[in-house]
Amino acid sequence: MFSASGWAIRRLAVASLAGAGFAALATSTAGASIEARSNTETIQPGGAGDSSATCPGGSTAISSGFGVGGFNTVSTGLVPTASRVNAPDDTDVFGVNRSNAKAGTLTGYAYCDTSAPEVVTRVAWRLLPVDSARTIRAGCPDGTRLISGGFVGSYDELVYPYRSKKVRNGWRVSAYNPPGGVARNVKALAFCEPRGRALRVGVASAVTDPSQAHGLATVEPTCPDATLPVAGGFDGHLVTSPPPSGVVPLESRRVAGGWRLTGWSLSTTSDAQLTGFVYCEPL
After folding, report:
1. DSSP alpha helices (H): ranges in the chain?
2. What is the domain partition of the chain in residue ranges?
């Protein structure tokens, strides 16, 4: 059942490794298993588009991931602007191609559980004016615990989401709307499970290479012992005072035992920090 305030979905209970097409995980817990599905779309120069990954029959999407291809730190390329669980059985990722000459690829990942209790979603939004940054948090209702989250900066215009992470029993999203566009609503989505267990957190940080303009940074936070990854988050530590500096994520996907995040520095003159998070459920 799907509604504006929530839908029945199933809890992720095991880890998965996402690859091209899909990957099935042999590990299972309490009769549940997880499959990772992915879908890749080509976004033309100067264009915007989405990539939806669909779960196999009998399973539901519990968290999402994304990645771009063809990105060049000099001529630029695709920037993901939204990543969310869209319905009980699929996820959506949106991106804008900053390049006027080169097409890029946008991959969306869905992590699909075969058996779990009901989960509800909460959505919060806030107007994001041009040339400004805003933060919004969606909180889980009483009696539930957060298991994952998502963000929407824009579906068709260049907006830079630079923070999407768990904060207490909710999900916080921050985005920057650069000059030249129009005001947008930035959204935070929280997925919450009744009677869920508290997640544990793994953290890793890296700094972009200051010797390269618009350098990249990659981190792979790992889960503590006796836990399994259920979601990932990031913080690009953006500062809007001109010129803006910080890290915009290009990749957020599950890997064995944790989560992989790659980000791109908005600044051409200074390094910037990327902090990645993996949220892990006790076995």
Report:
1. none
2. 22-282
Reference 12, options 82, 111, 80; nearest CA is 111
pTM for this model (two decimals): 0.86
Give the separation between CA 39 and CA 51, rounded to whole angstroms.
Answer: 6
22-282 maps to which CATH number? 2.60.120.690
The rounded distance, in Å, linking the Cα atoms of 240 and 179 is: 11
Residue 206 structure tokens = 């890296």
Question: What is the C-alpha to C-alpha distance for residues 233 and 253, in angstroms, rounded to an integer?
Answer: 10
4, two tokens: 């504006």
- Tokens 């544990």 belong to 200
For the chain, counts of helices (H) and of strands (E)? 0, 19
Q: What is the pLDDT of residues 24-78, one digit of tens each?
A: 332 333 345 678 999 999 999 999 999 999 988 888 788 999 999 988 776 678 9
Please, what's the b/e burial string for 36-56 (b: 16 or more CB within 10 A of its CB; e: otherwise)? bbbbeeebeeeebbbbbbbbe
Q: What is the pLDDT of residues 127-147, one digit of tens each?
A: 999 999 999 999 999 999 998
